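quick one, two chains, predict together pls
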Amino acid sequence: MIYVALLNGYMPPGGDGLAPRLAESVPSRLEHLPVNFDLSAYYSPERGQYNATLILAHLLRHLPDSNAKIVGLTNVDLFIPVLTFVFGQAQLNGPGAVVSTYRLRNEYYGLPASPSLLYDRTVKEIVHELGHTLGLVHCRDYSCVMHASTYVEEVDLKEARFCSDCSAELSDG
Amino acid sequence: MKRKKKILIVDDELSVRSSLEEWFLEDGFEVETAENGEAALRTMHNAGPFDVFVIDIRMPGMDGITLQKRVKEVDKDAAIIILTAFASVDTAVEALKLGAFDYITKPVDPDDLSHAVRNALRQRELSEENVRLRDKVTEMGLASPIIGESAKMRQVTEMIDAVAETDATVVIRGESGTGKELVARAIHARSPRRFFPIVAVNCGSIPDTLLESELFGHEKGAFTGAQYRRKGKLELANGGTLFLDEIGDIPAQMQIDLLRVLETKRFTRLGGNQEITSDFRLVCATNQDLEGLMKEGTFREDLYYRINVFTVDVPPLRERPEDIPLLARFFVEKYARAMAKPVKEISAEAEAVLLDYDWPGNVRELENAIERALVIGNDRDVQPVDLPFRVEREAKRPDALALTAVEEMHIRRVLRERGGNVTHAARALGVDRGTLYNKMKRYGIERE
Protein backbone atom coordinates (compact mmCIF):
# COMPACT_ATOMS: atom_id res chain seq x y z
CA MET A 1 0.00 0.00 0.00
CA ILE A 2 1.21 3.52 -0.84
CA TYR A 3 -0.25 6.59 0.86
CA VAL A 4 -0.25 9.92 -0.98
CA ALA A 5 -0.18 12.55 1.78
CA LEU A 6 -1.42 15.99 0.67
CA LEU A 7 0.43 17.99 3.36
CA ASN A 8 -1.72 20.44 5.30
CA GLY A 9 -4.48 20.09 2.74
CA TYR A 10 -2.34 21.34 -0.17
CA MET A 11 -4.10 20.35 -3.33
CA PRO A 12 -2.28 20.75 -6.66
CA PRO A 13 -4.37 20.94 -9.86
CA GLY A 14 -6.20 17.63 -10.19
CA GLY A 15 -4.92 16.68 -6.74
CA ASP A 16 -8.07 14.80 -5.80
CA GLY A 17 -7.48 12.47 -8.73
CA LEU A 18 -3.77 11.87 -8.13
CA ALA A 19 -3.96 8.43 -6.53
CA PRO A 20 -5.87 6.76 -9.40
CA ARG A 21 -3.55 8.42 -11.95
CA LEU A 22 -0.43 7.28 -10.05
CA ALA A 23 -1.81 3.74 -9.82
CA GLU A 24 -1.52 3.55 -13.63
CA SER A 25 2.27 3.87 -13.31
CA VAL A 26 3.09 2.34 -9.93
CA PRO A 27 2.36 -1.34 -9.39
CA SER A 28 0.70 -0.92 -6.01
CA ARG A 29 -2.53 0.13 -4.31
CA LEU A 30 -2.63 3.89 -3.61
CA GLU A 31 -4.78 5.96 -1.27
CA HIS A 32 -4.92 9.61 -0.25
CA LEU A 33 -4.07 10.36 3.38
CA PRO A 34 -4.69 13.71 5.06
CA VAL A 35 -1.58 14.76 7.02
CA ASN A 36 -1.26 18.03 8.93
CA PHE A 37 1.78 19.35 10.78
CA ASP A 38 3.56 22.65 11.24
CA LEU A 39 6.11 23.02 8.42
CA SER A 40 7.55 26.24 9.89
CA ALA A 41 9.63 24.12 12.27
CA TYR A 42 11.61 23.00 9.21
CA TYR A 43 12.09 26.43 7.70
CA SER A 44 15.68 27.68 7.32
CA PRO A 45 15.74 31.49 7.54
CA GLU A 46 19.25 31.66 5.99
CA ARG A 47 18.13 29.74 2.96
CA GLY A 48 14.49 30.83 2.80
CA GLN A 49 13.61 27.20 2.12
CA TYR A 50 12.35 24.10 3.94
CA ASN A 51 14.57 21.18 4.92
CA ALA A 52 13.32 18.16 2.96
CA THR A 53 15.19 15.64 5.11
CA LEU A 54 13.52 16.85 8.31
CA ILE A 55 10.07 17.07 6.71
CA LEU A 56 10.48 13.52 5.45
CA ALA A 57 11.49 12.31 8.93
CA HIS A 58 8.35 13.93 10.40
CA LEU A 59 6.14 12.56 7.64
CA LEU A 60 7.19 9.00 8.49
CA ARG A 61 5.54 9.39 11.92
CA HIS A 62 2.23 9.52 10.05
CA LEU A 63 2.79 6.22 8.25
CA PRO A 64 -0.24 4.12 9.26
CA ASP A 65 1.32 0.76 8.52
CA SER A 66 5.01 -0.18 8.82
CA ASN A 67 4.83 -2.25 5.62
CA ALA A 68 3.37 0.62 3.63
CA LYS A 69 5.08 3.57 1.90
CA ILE A 70 4.20 7.24 2.07
CA VAL A 71 4.85 10.13 -0.30
CA GLY A 72 4.16 13.65 0.92
CA LEU A 73 3.19 16.46 -1.46
CA THR A 74 3.76 20.12 -0.64
CA ASN A 75 4.09 23.48 -2.39
CA VAL A 76 6.98 24.84 -0.28
CA ASP A 77 10.53 25.17 -1.67
CA LEU A 78 12.59 22.18 -0.49
CA PHE A 79 16.34 21.83 0.02
CA ILE A 80 18.77 19.31 1.41
CA PRO A 81 21.78 20.78 3.23
CA VAL A 82 24.35 20.53 0.46
CA LEU A 83 22.13 21.31 -2.53
CA THR A 84 20.48 24.57 -3.56
CA PHE A 85 17.12 22.85 -4.01
CA VAL A 86 15.43 19.53 -4.68
CA PHE A 87 12.21 18.70 -6.53
CA GLY A 88 11.81 15.88 -4.06
CA GLN A 89 13.62 13.48 -1.79
CA ALA A 90 13.22 9.79 -1.18
CA GLN A 91 14.74 7.04 0.92
CA LEU A 92 16.28 4.49 -1.41
CA ASN A 93 14.48 1.23 -0.71
CA GLY A 94 12.86 2.92 2.25
CA PRO A 95 9.31 3.81 3.33
CA GLY A 96 9.09 7.52 2.52
CA ALA A 97 9.45 10.34 0.03
CA VAL A 98 8.46 13.97 -0.27
CA VAL A 99 7.81 16.02 -3.42
CA SER A 100 7.41 19.76 -3.87
CA THR A 101 5.53 21.51 -6.67
CA TYR A 102 7.26 24.82 -5.90
CA ARG A 103 9.77 24.62 -8.77
CA LEU A 104 7.51 22.58 -11.01
CA ARG A 105 5.28 25.60 -11.63
CA ASN A 106 5.75 27.55 -14.86
CA GLU A 107 5.32 30.80 -12.92
CA TYR A 108 8.59 30.13 -11.05
CA TYR A 109 10.38 30.52 -14.38
CA GLY A 110 8.42 33.63 -15.38
CA LEU A 111 6.11 31.74 -17.73
CA PRO A 112 2.31 31.71 -17.82
CA ALA A 113 0.71 29.22 -15.45
CA SER A 114 -0.17 25.84 -16.93
CA PRO A 115 -2.25 23.66 -14.60
CA SER A 116 -2.05 20.65 -16.95
CA LEU A 117 1.74 20.87 -17.20
CA LEU A 118 2.01 21.20 -13.43
CA TYR A 119 -0.22 18.15 -12.99
CA ASP A 120 1.92 16.09 -15.39
CA ARG A 121 5.17 17.19 -13.72
CA THR A 122 3.78 16.44 -10.29
CA VAL A 123 2.74 12.93 -11.33
CA LYS A 124 6.19 12.27 -12.83
CA GLU A 125 8.06 13.51 -9.77
CA ILE A 126 5.89 11.46 -7.40
CA VAL A 127 6.39 8.31 -9.53
CA HIS A 128 10.13 9.08 -9.67
CA GLU A 129 10.50 9.37 -5.89
CA LEU A 130 8.30 6.31 -5.34
CA GLY A 131 10.61 4.46 -7.74
CA HIS A 132 13.50 5.24 -5.37
CA THR A 133 11.52 3.92 -2.39
CA LEU A 134 11.00 0.75 -4.44
CA GLY A 135 14.78 0.44 -4.84
CA LEU A 136 15.30 1.95 -8.30
CA VAL A 137 18.24 4.26 -9.00
CA HIS A 138 18.53 6.79 -11.82
CA CYS A 139 18.08 5.42 -15.32
CA ARG A 140 19.99 6.43 -18.46
CA ASP A 141 16.88 6.22 -20.66
CA TYR A 142 15.85 9.88 -20.97
CA SER A 143 12.19 8.94 -21.45
CA CYS A 144 12.08 6.74 -18.34
CA VAL A 145 10.53 8.33 -15.26
CA MET A 146 13.64 7.31 -13.29
CA HIS A 147 15.90 9.50 -15.43
CA ALA A 148 17.57 12.12 -13.21
CA SER A 149 16.14 15.59 -13.82
CA THR A 150 17.46 18.79 -12.37
CA TYR A 151 15.51 21.02 -14.76
CA VAL A 152 11.75 21.05 -15.35
CA GLU A 153 12.49 20.76 -19.06
CA GLU A 154 14.06 17.40 -18.33
CA VAL A 155 10.98 16.43 -16.33
CA ASP A 156 8.87 17.33 -19.37
CA LEU A 157 11.02 15.16 -21.62
CA LYS A 158 10.41 11.99 -19.66
CA GLU A 159 7.21 10.01 -19.40
CA ALA A 160 5.26 9.04 -16.28
CA ARG A 161 6.23 5.39 -16.66
CA PHE A 162 9.10 3.05 -15.92
CA CYS A 163 11.14 1.84 -18.91
CA SER A 164 11.28 -1.89 -19.60
CA ASP A 165 14.56 -2.33 -17.67
CA CYS A 166 13.24 -0.50 -14.59
CA SER A 167 9.91 -2.36 -14.82
CA ALA A 168 11.80 -5.65 -14.99
CA GLU A 169 13.82 -4.66 -11.96
CA LEU A 170 10.62 -3.85 -10.06
CA SER A 171 9.15 -7.24 -11.02
CA ASP A 172 12.35 -9.05 -9.97
CA GLY A 173 12.62 -7.13 -6.71
CA MET B 1 26.75 -6.75 -14.82
CA LYS B 2 28.33 -3.30 -14.85
CA ARG B 3 30.28 -2.46 -11.70
CA LYS B 4 28.78 0.37 -9.63
CA LYS B 5 31.00 3.43 -9.44
CA LYS B 6 32.37 4.10 -5.98
CA ILE B 7 32.42 7.47 -4.35
CA LEU B 8 33.92 8.61 -1.05
CA ILE B 9 32.36 11.66 0.60
CA VAL B 10 34.47 13.41 3.22
CA ASP B 11 32.83 16.18 5.23
CA ASP B 12 32.71 16.93 8.95
CA GLU B 13 29.02 17.93 8.77
CA LEU B 14 26.73 14.97 9.20
CA SER B 15 23.88 16.63 7.32
CA VAL B 16 26.08 17.24 4.28
CA ARG B 17 27.43 13.69 4.37
CA SER B 18 24.01 12.10 4.65
CA SER B 19 22.34 14.28 2.04
CA LEU B 20 25.14 13.68 -0.44
CA GLU B 21 25.05 9.99 0.39
CA GLU B 22 21.30 9.83 -0.38
CA TRP B 23 21.80 11.81 -3.56
CA PHE B 24 24.55 9.57 -4.90
CA LEU B 25 22.81 6.36 -3.83
CA GLU B 26 19.81 7.45 -5.91
CA ASP B 27 22.22 8.08 -8.76
CA GLY B 28 23.34 4.45 -8.59
CA PHE B 29 26.69 4.93 -6.87
CA GLU B 30 28.22 2.79 -4.17
CA VAL B 31 28.82 5.36 -1.44
CA GLU B 32 31.15 5.54 1.58
CA THR B 33 31.40 8.52 3.88
CA ALA B 34 34.05 9.76 6.30
CA GLU B 35 33.85 12.56 8.86
CA ASN B 36 37.50 13.63 8.64
CA GLY B 37 40.75 13.12 6.77
CA GLU B 38 42.05 10.33 8.97
CA ALA B 39 38.81 8.37 8.66
CA ALA B 40 38.88 8.95 4.88
CA LEU B 41 42.34 7.41 4.57
CA ARG B 42 41.23 4.43 6.66
CA THR B 43 38.12 3.99 4.47
CA MET B 44 40.27 4.26 1.38
CA HIS B 45 42.51 1.50 2.69
CA ASN B 46 39.68 -0.79 3.78
CA ALA B 47 37.03 -0.16 1.12
CA GLY B 48 38.96 1.36 -1.80
CA PRO B 49 39.69 1.95 -4.57
CA PHE B 50 37.22 4.79 -5.27
CA ASP B 51 36.30 6.30 -8.62
CA VAL B 52 35.49 9.76 -7.26
CA PHE B 53 36.23 11.66 -4.05
CA VAL B 54 34.12 14.59 -2.82
CA ILE B 55 36.16 16.35 -0.14
CA ASP B 56 35.19 19.31 2.02
CA ILE B 57 37.99 21.82 2.10
CA ARG B 58 37.50 22.94 5.71
CA MET B 59 37.56 20.22 8.32
CA PRO B 60 38.94 20.07 11.83
CA GLY B 61 42.24 18.18 11.99
CA MET B 62 43.48 17.29 8.53
CA ASP B 63 42.04 19.84 6.06
CA GLY B 64 40.81 19.02 2.57
CA ILE B 65 43.99 20.17 0.82
CA THR B 66 46.19 17.93 2.98
CA LEU B 67 43.81 15.03 2.49
CA GLN B 68 43.87 15.61 -1.25
CA LYS B 69 47.68 15.34 -1.21
CA ARG B 70 47.52 12.13 0.84
CA VAL B 71 44.92 10.62 -1.51
CA LYS B 72 47.06 11.49 -4.53
CA GLU B 73 50.05 9.80 -2.89
CA VAL B 74 48.12 6.54 -2.87
CA ASP B 75 46.19 6.99 -6.12
CA LYS B 76 47.80 9.61 -8.33
CA ASP B 77 44.91 9.51 -10.85
CA ALA B 78 42.22 9.98 -8.17
CA ALA B 79 39.32 12.14 -9.37
CA ILE B 80 38.78 14.66 -6.58
CA ILE B 81 36.03 17.25 -6.32
CA ILE B 82 36.54 19.86 -3.62
CA LEU B 83 33.54 21.20 -1.73
CA THR B 84 33.97 24.71 -0.48
CA ALA B 85 32.04 27.56 1.06
CA PHE B 86 32.05 30.71 -1.10
CA ALA B 87 34.51 32.39 1.25
CA SER B 88 37.29 29.88 0.59
CA VAL B 89 37.44 30.02 -3.20
CA ASP B 90 41.15 30.95 -3.03
CA THR B 91 41.88 27.69 -1.28
CA ALA B 92 39.80 25.86 -3.85
CA VAL B 93 41.97 27.36 -6.57
CA GLU B 94 45.01 26.04 -4.71
CA ALA B 95 43.34 22.61 -4.65
CA LEU B 96 42.90 22.77 -8.43
CA LYS B 97 46.57 23.61 -8.85
CA LEU B 98 47.39 20.56 -6.77
CA GLY B 99 45.41 18.34 -9.10
CA ALA B 100 41.80 18.42 -7.89
CA PHE B 101 39.48 17.86 -10.84
CA ASP B 102 36.93 20.51 -9.90
CA TYR B 103 35.53 22.47 -7.00
CA ILE B 104 31.94 23.31 -6.18
CA THR B 105 30.59 25.79 -3.69
CA LYS B 106 28.07 24.89 -1.01
CA PRO B 107 25.13 24.85 -1.38
CA VAL B 108 25.53 23.18 -4.74
CA ASP B 109 23.17 23.44 -7.67
CA PRO B 110 22.09 19.82 -8.29
CA ASP B 111 22.92 20.16 -11.95
CA ASP B 112 26.45 21.45 -11.20
CA LEU B 113 27.02 18.53 -8.85
CA SER B 114 25.87 16.00 -11.47
CA HIS B 115 28.06 17.64 -14.10
CA ALA B 116 31.13 17.79 -11.87
CA VAL B 117 30.84 14.13 -10.94
CA ARG B 118 30.06 12.98 -14.49
CA ASN B 119 33.01 14.93 -15.85
CA ALA B 120 35.34 13.63 -13.14
CA LEU B 121 34.29 10.07 -13.94
CA ARG B 122 34.74 10.67 -17.64
CA GLN B 123 38.20 12.09 -16.99
CA ARG B 124 39.17 9.08 -14.93
CA GLU B 125 37.79 6.66 -17.50
CA LEU B 126 39.70 8.47 -20.23
CA SER B 127 42.98 8.30 -18.35
CA GLU B 128 42.41 4.61 -17.62
CA GLU B 129 41.48 4.01 -21.24
CA ASN B 130 44.60 5.87 -22.28
CA VAL B 131 46.75 3.50 -20.22
CA ARG B 132 44.88 0.48 -21.63
CA LEU B 133 45.29 1.72 -25.21
CA ARG B 134 48.98 2.37 -24.71
CA ASP B 135 49.37 -1.18 -23.45
CA LYS B 136 47.33 -2.41 -26.38
CA VAL B 137 49.45 -0.50 -28.87
CA THR B 138 52.59 -1.91 -27.25
CA GLU B 139 51.02 -5.34 -27.40
CA MET B 140 50.08 -4.92 -31.06
CA GLY B 141 53.59 -3.74 -31.80
CA LEU B 142 54.94 -6.86 -30.17
CA ALA B 143 52.47 -9.22 -31.72
CA SER B 144 53.55 -10.94 -34.87
CA PRO B 145 51.71 -13.74 -36.56
CA ILE B 146 53.07 -17.24 -36.23
CA ILE B 147 54.82 -17.91 -39.52
CA GLY B 148 55.48 -21.42 -40.72
CA GLU B 149 54.10 -24.01 -43.05
CA SER B 150 56.29 -26.86 -41.93
CA ALA B 151 54.62 -29.93 -40.48
CA LYS B 152 56.13 -29.15 -37.07
CA MET B 153 54.75 -25.62 -37.00
CA ARG B 154 51.37 -26.79 -38.24
CA GLN B 155 51.34 -29.14 -35.28
CA VAL B 156 52.08 -26.19 -32.96
CA THR B 157 49.21 -24.19 -34.50
CA GLU B 158 46.85 -27.12 -34.09
CA MET B 159 47.83 -27.41 -30.43
CA ILE B 160 47.25 -23.70 -29.91
CA ASP B 161 43.79 -24.02 -31.43
CA ALA B 162 43.02 -27.04 -29.28
CA VAL B 163 44.02 -25.49 -25.97
CA ALA B 164 43.14 -21.81 -26.50
CA GLU B 165 39.40 -22.22 -25.90
CA THR B 166 39.95 -24.07 -22.62
CA ASP B 167 41.15 -22.43 -19.42
CA ALA B 168 43.94 -24.96 -18.92
CA THR B 169 47.40 -23.91 -17.78
CA VAL B 170 49.90 -24.24 -20.62
CA VAL B 171 53.63 -24.77 -20.51
CA ILE B 172 55.43 -23.72 -23.69
CA ARG B 173 58.83 -25.32 -24.12
CA GLY B 174 61.43 -24.35 -26.62
CA GLU B 175 64.93 -23.01 -27.13
CA SER B 176 65.60 -19.34 -26.72
CA GLY B 177 64.35 -17.30 -29.67
CA THR B 178 61.88 -19.87 -31.00
CA GLY B 179 58.87 -17.58 -30.40
CA LYS B 180 57.41 -18.93 -27.14
CA GLU B 181 55.90 -15.55 -26.29
CA LEU B 182 54.23 -15.42 -29.71
CA VAL B 183 52.65 -18.79 -28.97
CA ALA B 184 51.46 -17.48 -25.58
CA ARG B 185 49.94 -14.41 -27.23
CA ALA B 186 48.29 -16.56 -29.89
CA ILE B 187 46.73 -18.74 -27.17
CA HIS B 188 45.46 -15.61 -25.40
CA ALA B 189 44.19 -14.03 -28.63
CA ARG B 190 42.12 -17.11 -29.45
CA SER B 191 40.82 -17.63 -25.91
CA PRO B 192 37.59 -16.31 -24.37
CA ARG B 193 39.83 -14.07 -22.24
CA ARG B 194 41.06 -12.14 -25.28
CA PHE B 195 39.11 -8.99 -24.34
CA PHE B 196 41.15 -8.72 -21.15
CA PRO B 197 44.89 -8.12 -21.01
CA ILE B 198 47.71 -10.59 -21.41
CA VAL B 199 50.31 -9.59 -18.85
CA ALA B 200 53.83 -10.87 -19.48
CA VAL B 201 56.56 -11.22 -16.87
CA ASN B 202 60.04 -12.42 -17.71
CA CYS B 203 60.99 -14.12 -14.46
CA GLY B 204 64.56 -14.52 -15.61
CA SER B 205 65.23 -10.87 -16.30
CA ILE B 206 63.99 -9.39 -13.00
CA PRO B 207 66.17 -9.55 -9.89
CA ASP B 208 64.72 -11.87 -7.20
CA THR B 209 64.25 -8.94 -4.84
CA LEU B 210 62.02 -7.09 -7.31
CA LEU B 211 60.17 -10.08 -8.74
CA GLU B 212 57.96 -10.44 -5.68
CA SER B 213 56.77 -6.84 -5.89
CA GLU B 214 56.42 -7.16 -9.66
CA LEU B 215 54.08 -10.13 -9.26
CA PHE B 216 52.20 -9.29 -6.08
CA GLY B 217 52.33 -5.48 -6.08
CA HIS B 218 52.99 -3.44 -2.97
CA GLU B 219 51.40 -0.92 -0.67
CA LYS B 220 52.85 2.54 -0.20
CA GLY B 221 55.75 2.28 2.25
CA ALA B 222 56.06 -1.52 1.96
CA PHE B 223 59.81 -1.03 1.49
CA THR B 224 62.26 1.81 0.99
CA GLY B 225 61.39 3.58 -2.22
CA ALA B 226 57.79 2.30 -2.36
CA GLN B 227 56.29 5.77 -2.67
CA TYR B 228 53.03 4.73 -4.28
CA ARG B 229 50.73 1.77 -4.06
CA ARG B 230 51.48 -0.40 -7.07
CA LYS B 231 49.36 -3.14 -8.54
CA GLY B 232 51.23 -6.36 -9.28
CA LYS B 233 51.06 -8.33 -12.51
CA LEU B 234 48.83 -10.95 -10.86
CA GLU B 235 46.25 -8.25 -10.17
CA LEU B 236 46.63 -6.63 -13.60
CA ALA B 237 46.00 -9.98 -15.31
CA ASN B 238 42.54 -10.20 -13.72
CA GLY B 239 40.16 -11.54 -16.35
CA GLY B 240 43.00 -12.19 -18.80
CA THR B 241 46.15 -14.24 -19.12
CA LEU B 242 49.32 -14.15 -17.02
CA PHE B 243 52.34 -15.14 -19.08
CA LEU B 244 55.32 -16.16 -16.96
CA ASP B 245 58.35 -16.46 -19.19
CA GLU B 246 61.40 -18.37 -17.93
CA ILE B 247 59.39 -19.92 -15.13
CA GLY B 248 62.34 -22.17 -14.30
CA ASP B 249 64.13 -19.08 -12.95
CA ILE B 250 61.60 -18.35 -10.17
CA PRO B 251 63.34 -18.50 -6.77
CA ALA B 252 62.34 -21.23 -4.32
CA GLN B 253 60.39 -19.07 -1.84
CA MET B 254 58.37 -17.44 -4.58
CA GLN B 255 57.52 -20.84 -6.03
CA ILE B 256 55.64 -21.52 -2.78
CA ASP B 257 53.83 -18.16 -2.96
CA LEU B 258 52.96 -18.67 -6.60
CA LEU B 259 51.62 -22.16 -5.94
CA ARG B 260 49.35 -20.76 -3.21
CA VAL B 261 48.02 -18.08 -5.58
CA LEU B 262 47.40 -20.65 -8.32
CA GLU B 263 45.43 -22.77 -5.91
CA THR B 264 43.35 -20.01 -4.26
CA LYS B 265 43.52 -17.15 -6.81
CA ARG B 266 43.93 -14.91 -3.76
CA PHE B 267 46.91 -12.97 -2.46
CA THR B 268 47.90 -9.75 -0.69
CA ARG B 269 50.12 -6.94 -1.89
CA LEU B 270 53.52 -6.61 -0.16
CA GLY B 271 53.06 -4.63 3.03
CA GLY B 272 49.28 -4.95 2.82
CA ASN B 273 46.67 -7.06 4.52
CA GLN B 274 43.76 -6.66 2.13
CA GLU B 275 43.15 -9.91 0.30
CA ILE B 276 42.88 -9.52 -3.45
CA THR B 277 41.22 -11.96 -5.79
CA SER B 278 42.41 -12.26 -9.36
CA ASP B 279 40.97 -14.54 -11.99
CA PHE B 280 43.61 -15.24 -14.62
CA ARG B 281 44.74 -18.02 -16.90
CA LEU B 282 48.35 -19.02 -16.53
CA VAL B 283 50.62 -19.65 -19.49
CA CYS B 284 54.29 -20.33 -18.73
CA ALA B 285 57.32 -20.74 -20.92
CA THR B 286 60.73 -22.19 -20.34
CA ASN B 287 63.86 -23.05 -22.25
CA GLN B 288 65.02 -25.27 -19.40
CA ASP B 289 64.30 -28.88 -18.61
CA LEU B 290 61.76 -28.44 -15.79
CA GLU B 291 61.74 -32.14 -14.99
CA GLY B 292 65.52 -32.05 -14.65
CA LEU B 293 65.27 -28.98 -12.37
CA MET B 294 62.64 -30.84 -10.35
CA LYS B 295 64.95 -33.83 -9.92
CA GLU B 296 67.79 -31.49 -8.90
CA GLY B 297 65.43 -29.99 -6.33
CA THR B 298 65.50 -26.44 -7.70
CA PHE B 299 61.94 -26.55 -9.05
CA ARG B 300 59.14 -27.64 -6.72
CA GLU B 301 57.43 -30.87 -7.64
CA ASP B 302 53.96 -29.62 -6.53
CA LEU B 303 54.31 -26.47 -8.65
CA TYR B 304 55.51 -28.52 -11.61
CA TYR B 305 52.45 -30.78 -11.49
CA ARG B 306 50.17 -27.76 -10.89
CA ILE B 307 51.32 -26.00 -14.06
CA ASN B 308 52.08 -28.96 -16.29
CA VAL B 309 48.58 -29.45 -17.66
CA PHE B 310 49.18 -28.97 -21.37
CA THR B 311 52.53 -28.69 -23.11
CA VAL B 312 53.36 -27.05 -26.41
CA ASP B 313 56.83 -27.72 -27.84
CA VAL B 314 58.07 -25.05 -30.21
CA PRO B 315 60.67 -26.55 -32.55
CA PRO B 316 64.04 -24.88 -33.15
CA LEU B 317 64.45 -23.23 -36.52
CA ARG B 318 67.03 -25.78 -37.70
CA GLU B 319 64.34 -28.47 -37.47
CA ARG B 320 62.05 -26.60 -39.84
CA PRO B 321 64.32 -25.13 -42.54
CA GLU B 322 61.45 -24.95 -45.01
CA ASP B 323 60.03 -22.08 -42.95
CA ILE B 324 63.22 -20.00 -43.25
CA PRO B 325 62.38 -18.35 -46.62
CA LEU B 326 58.86 -17.53 -45.43
CA LEU B 327 60.13 -16.02 -42.18
CA ALA B 328 62.91 -14.12 -43.96
CA ARG B 329 60.38 -12.68 -46.37
CA PHE B 330 58.08 -11.70 -43.50
CA PHE B 331 60.90 -9.88 -41.71
CA VAL B 332 62.03 -8.13 -44.90
CA GLU B 333 58.52 -6.71 -45.29
CA LYS B 334 58.25 -5.86 -41.59
CA TYR B 335 61.52 -3.90 -41.46
CA ALA B 336 61.11 -2.32 -44.88
CA ARG B 337 57.80 -0.93 -43.60
CA ALA B 338 59.34 0.19 -40.31
CA MET B 339 62.25 1.90 -42.10
CA ALA B 340 60.02 3.28 -44.86
CA LYS B 341 62.19 1.56 -47.47
CA PRO B 342 61.03 -0.29 -50.58
CA VAL B 343 60.52 -4.00 -50.04
CA LYS B 344 63.54 -5.84 -51.41
CA GLU B 345 63.93 -9.36 -52.68
CA ILE B 346 66.24 -11.88 -51.10
CA SER B 347 68.70 -13.07 -53.72
CA ALA B 348 68.86 -16.79 -54.39
CA GLU B 349 72.42 -16.83 -53.05
CA ALA B 350 71.45 -15.09 -49.81
CA GLU B 351 68.48 -17.42 -49.39
CA ALA B 352 70.77 -20.39 -49.83
CA VAL B 353 73.07 -19.01 -47.10
CA LEU B 354 70.10 -18.54 -44.77
CA LEU B 355 68.93 -22.07 -45.47
CA ASP B 356 72.28 -23.59 -44.77
CA TYR B 357 72.90 -21.94 -41.43
CA ASP B 358 72.11 -23.66 -38.14
CA TRP B 359 70.38 -20.70 -36.40
CA PRO B 360 71.33 -21.41 -32.77
CA GLY B 361 69.51 -18.19 -31.83
CA ASN B 362 66.47 -19.39 -33.78
CA VAL B 363 63.83 -17.02 -35.22
CA ARG B 364 65.09 -14.10 -33.13
CA GLU B 365 68.55 -14.48 -34.70
CA LEU B 366 67.02 -14.65 -38.18
CA GLU B 367 64.98 -11.53 -37.49
CA ASN B 368 68.08 -9.67 -36.31
CA ALA B 369 70.01 -10.83 -39.37
CA ILE B 370 67.34 -9.54 -41.75
CA GLU B 371 67.01 -6.25 -39.89
CA ARG B 372 70.76 -5.78 -40.15
CA ALA B 373 70.70 -6.65 -43.86
CA LEU B 374 68.08 -3.99 -44.47
CA VAL B 375 69.96 -1.39 -42.47
CA ILE B 376 73.32 -1.88 -44.15
CA GLY B 377 72.24 -3.03 -47.61
CA ASN B 378 71.64 -0.57 -50.41
CA ASP B 379 68.65 -0.66 -52.69
CA ARG B 380 69.57 -3.93 -54.41
CA ASP B 381 68.26 -7.32 -53.30
CA VAL B 382 69.55 -8.80 -50.07
CA GLN B 383 72.92 -10.41 -50.80
CA PRO B 384 75.03 -12.82 -48.71
CA VAL B 385 77.37 -9.94 -47.95
CA ASP B 386 74.53 -8.12 -46.15
CA LEU B 387 74.08 -10.97 -43.70
CA PRO B 388 75.91 -11.01 -40.37
CA PHE B 389 79.43 -12.33 -40.65
CA ARG B 390 78.68 -15.34 -38.47
CA VAL B 391 75.80 -16.45 -40.64
CA GLU B 392 77.77 -16.17 -43.84
CA ARG B 393 80.88 -17.86 -42.52
CA GLU B 394 79.17 -20.78 -40.86
CA ALA B 395 76.78 -21.50 -43.64
CA LYS B 396 77.90 -24.03 -46.16
CA ARG B 397 78.57 -22.42 -49.51
CA PRO B 398 75.56 -22.36 -51.78
CA ASP B 399 77.37 -24.57 -54.28
CA ALA B 400 77.42 -27.29 -51.63
CA LEU B 401 73.61 -27.44 -51.66
CA ALA B 402 72.05 -30.36 -53.45
CA LEU B 403 70.66 -29.41 -56.83
CA THR B 404 67.22 -30.60 -55.75
CA ALA B 405 67.28 -28.27 -52.72
CA VAL B 406 68.02 -25.31 -54.95
CA GLU B 407 65.27 -26.40 -57.34
CA GLU B 408 62.73 -26.73 -54.52
CA MET B 409 63.72 -23.34 -53.13
CA HIS B 410 63.40 -21.71 -56.54
CA ILE B 411 60.00 -23.27 -57.26
CA ARG B 412 58.65 -22.12 -53.88
CA ARG B 413 59.95 -18.64 -54.49
CA VAL B 414 58.50 -18.29 -58.00
CA LEU B 415 55.15 -19.65 -56.82
CA ARG B 416 55.13 -17.19 -53.96
CA GLU B 417 55.95 -14.30 -56.26
CA ARG B 418 53.04 -15.23 -58.50
CA GLY B 419 50.58 -15.55 -55.66
CA GLY B 420 50.46 -19.35 -55.92
CA ASN B 421 49.27 -19.30 -59.54
CA VAL B 422 50.69 -22.53 -61.03
CA THR B 423 50.11 -21.53 -64.68
CA HIS B 424 52.02 -18.25 -64.29
CA ALA B 425 54.76 -19.89 -62.24
CA ALA B 426 55.19 -22.67 -64.84
CA ARG B 427 55.47 -20.06 -67.60
CA ALA B 428 58.12 -18.15 -65.63
CA LEU B 429 60.05 -21.34 -64.95
CA GLY B 430 59.92 -22.38 -68.63
CA VAL B 431 58.18 -25.71 -67.95
CA ASP B 432 54.64 -26.89 -68.56
CA ARG B 433 52.06 -27.07 -65.79
CA GLY B 434 52.18 -30.87 -65.58
CA THR B 435 55.95 -30.83 -64.98
CA LEU B 436 55.56 -28.19 -62.33
CA TYR B 437 52.77 -30.17 -60.61
CA ASN B 438 54.99 -33.25 -60.54
CA LYS B 439 57.84 -31.31 -58.98
CA MET B 440 55.53 -29.68 -56.45
CA LYS B 441 54.26 -33.12 -55.49
CA ARG B 442 57.79 -34.45 -55.15
CA TYR B 443 58.83 -31.56 -52.86
CA GLY B 444 55.60 -31.57 -50.88
CA ILE B 445 54.65 -28.08 -52.02
CA GLU B 446 50.92 -27.57 -51.60
CA ARG B 447 48.77 -25.42 -53.89
CA GLU B 448 47.60 -22.27 -52.19
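The CA atoms of residues 23 and 110 of chain B lie 9 Å apart.
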